[in-house]
Each structure stands twice: as structure tokens, then as C-alpha cells.
Specification:
Blueprint: E1 2-8, E2 11-17, H1 54-63, H2 65-75, H3 78-87, H4 102-108, H5 111-121, H6 132-147, E3 159-161, H7 173-188, H8 190-198, H9 204-219, E4 226-229, H10 231-247, E5 249-251
Parallel strand pairs: 1-4
Antiparallel strand pairs: 1-2, 3-5
Helix pairs in contact: 2-5, 2-6, 3-6, 6-10, 7-8, 7-9, 7-10, 8-9, 8-10
């Protein structure tokens, strides 16, 4: 048996399911899950809830103060933001990793100016700390929604996702384990993963998406493991996987050296 626990507020959603024994090295999967990393995207999205809501939930999120703030940072320079995302990864935890410091990056992306603008436009105070991983999350989310404003239009049935490149975390197992799990979930159910990423934090839509994702989340956990994720962490992980998949998928017929094994 395996167990998956997703904490939502003060409640925990627990899933238990039997897991078939792993067969051989040919069926290697992230965390030894049942879902092969090289599986093609599903030909059809799961239909147990209305994906037409994606646009409306996205609008709610974009109107939130954090959404306004992230877009302000990103709009300082789309090209600069994309270059920053290309040279960092989920393991970006120190500004020194890319040869700079917090104050330089804060000035480059207009952190203090954007904070002031959002506070003024909402007639409210805003307090945020400028951390390396926070900057990546803000820019990644905005870049993804800028390219795909309504839904996961990048998903092409039958495509597979290419190998990841880790600019900063090639030798950091913890980062790769987290990303393998997230990549597995997105490959199994890209449309619901996209929907979840768009939902406002703490909303009923977020809870609905978690329930819909449970089969994929459970299927990407190995036998004998228990993984606990709060909604914020799950959002970050799936955002990383969505960004990677949307920029690095190709038809399954592509050369095997270019796709995830």
C-alpha cells in the first residue's frame, strides 16, 4: 500500500491504493511509480469537471495583488525574465549561484517599485520578502500565463517531454526527486495540472482540482512511500513541471535520445 496526503488548510486528504509490483529496468519511472516518464500525453483530458472554467479562475488569480505584483516584475522586461528562468531551476536558493546579489536583482526587476505600485492601486499595504526561489516562482507563473492565458493549449496528444536540464541542480538529488514527481503528474494529467496552477490559493476551485488530481498524484508515488504536500508547495512543483513540459515536448516519434527515457 502507498499513501498520499495533501494538506488543505487544517484538513488532510488521504489516498491509499494498492500498487502493482515493479517489473524490470525497462519500466523505470520517477520514484518507481507506475506511470512511465516517457508516456505520451493523454489523447483526451479527464472530463469529470468543466475545464471551461480555466479562463475564469485565471482572471480571479490575475486580479489578486500577488498576481498584479508578479506581472509588474515580468513586464519590466519579458526577455530578461525568460533569460533568468533559463539559467535557474527549482534549486535556485542563493543569488550567488548566478553571480549576483539580492539588491542587484531587486533593482533589475523593479521589486520595490512594483511593490509600491500594487499597494497604491489597491489602497493597501503589501509586505513581501525578496528570496531567490520567490523571484523564480513569480516570474515563472507570469511567463506561463503570458504564453498560455486561457488553458494548456500547448498539450499535443501523443507528445512526450524531453529530458530536463538543471543549470544549477545537476547534482542535487532532492531537486530532481521533486521535479520527477511533478513531471510525472503533469504527463499523466496535464489539463488538470494546468487548471490547478490557475486556481486562486485557498479557493473551492483549488480543492476541486486537488481531488481531480488524486489518481495521478497517487500513481506517481512509489510503493512504501508517503508524501505530504501543502497546496502552495504542490502549486510550485506543478508550475515547474508545466513550464518545462510546455517548452520541451515533442512527438513520440522523435529520436529516442531527445526524449525522456
Amino acid at each position: 500500500m502507498k499513501r498520499l496526503s495533501i494538506v488543505i488548510g487544517c484538513a488532510a486528504v488521504l489516498v491509499s491504493a494498492p500498487l502493482a509490483a515493479q517489473s524490470n529496468s525497462d519500466s523505470y519511472t520517477p520514484l518507481n511509480s507506475r506511470i512511465k516518464r516517457k508516456n505520451a500525453f493523454p489523447t483526451e483530458p479527464r472530463r469529470t469537471f468543466d475545464f471551461k472554467k480555466s479562463s475564469s479562475v485565471g482572471k480571479k488569480r490575475s486580479k489578486a495583488m500577488l498576481g498584479q505584483f508578479s506581472r509588474c516584475l515580468y513586464n519590466r522586461s519579458n526577455e530578461r525574465s525568460l533569460n533568468f528562468l533559463a539559467k535557474t531551476d527549482f534549486g535556485f536558493v542563493s543569488f550567488e549561484q548566478i553571480g549576483t546579489n539580492g539588491e542587484e536583482l531587486a533593482q533589475l526587476f523593479g521589486f520595490h517599485d512594483c511593490l509600491g505600485r500594487v499597494a497604491e492601486s489597491n489602497n493597501s499595504g503589501v509586505a513581501l520578502r525578496f528570496y531567490p526561489n520567490g523571484l523564480r516562482q513569480w516570474l515563472l507563473e507570469t511567463a506561463y500565463f503570458d504564453q498560455y492565458p486561457d488553458d494548456a493549449s500547448w498539450v499535443k496528444p501523443g507528445n512526450v517531454v524531453k529530458d530536463r536540464v538543471y543549470p544549477l541542480s545537476e547534482n542535487v538529488p532532492e531537486v530532481q526527486v521533486a521535479m520527477n514527481f511533478a513531471d510525472c503528474v503533469v504527463a499523466a494529467d496535464p489539463h488538470t495540472s494546468d487548471f490547478y496552477f490557475r486556481t486562486p490559493s485557498g479557493s473551492e476551485d483549488e480543492k476541486l482540482a486537488v481531488k481531480e488530481l488524486m489518481p495521478s498524484l497517487s500513481g506517481c508515488i512509489s510503493e512504501g512511500r508517503e508524501l505530504k504536500l501543502d497546496p502552495s508547495s504542490l502549486r510550485v512543483w506543478l508550475g515547474e513541471a508545466l513550464w518545462h513540459a510546455s517548452n520541451n515536448s515533442a512527438p513520440a516519434e522523435a529520436d529516442s535520445s531527445e526524449v525522456t527515457q
